[in-house]
User: Fold this.
Amino acid sequence: MAIALCCKQQELRTIGKQLMVFSDNSGLTERLGTRHLLSRKTPHPKHPTSLLYHNVAESQLSIDMVQRICFVTIGATASFDQLIKATLSPGFLQALQASDYTTLSLQYGKNGQQILQEFRENVASGRQRDYGMDITGFDFNKQGLGQEMKTVKAGKNRQEGVVISHAGSGSILDALRISVPLIVVPNPSLLDNHQAELAEELAKQGYVVYGHLEDLPAALREAEKLRDNKSAWPPNNHRADPSGQGLAGVMDDELGFVD
Assistant:
């Protein structure tokens, strides 16, 4: 019995360490075996333009070149063209550049490809600027977005970045599991208001940043404060929870679970 209990405690400690993966400020330390996914030599068969499978050999990366990735996801069920357009706006791209981001990766859903294509045409014609960002995109990965989100984590030649997500519970949980700063932007075109309520409650408790379409640069600045304020997930210094629910209770309400 004592041996079994000891093994169980060790297993729990291991799981805890896997969640506590917020990197140091330099972003250059590869912690807990984080894989350097950008060094793969072959593209993904379904998403050849996806940043995760960018065909760049590691030997081509300059020792002084540090990538920092902003990954944006709108989920699989509803279009969110407003978010894609907001992340391609001059103000937001300039804010990314000012915070040393190098890459913007978009999971743009059903209609977003045309938005990205129009942006690229505008950049090529000089009507818009990309502010030096490497901007890529894809519709969706049926295997899930966990691997794409992991590219935001710190690794070799990569500084920790940020995830920007619609307020779907699945996407939020995926991002929280990998312990990177998360900006949640509710979709105002949806008929009900559950996304806004979920984002507000999680922001109150200090788990995420509530992002507004009209001012994503401000959300990006708030994400840096969130990064500085916590060194583990769940955060030890999260804000007061007036509801007394905690993260589990909030997500249970969202998913429809009751006691």
User: Anything to note?
Assistant: Confidence is low (pLDDT under 50) at residues 1-9, 11-46, 48-63, 255-259. The beta strands are 67-73, 103-107, 134-138, 158-166, 182-185, 209-210.
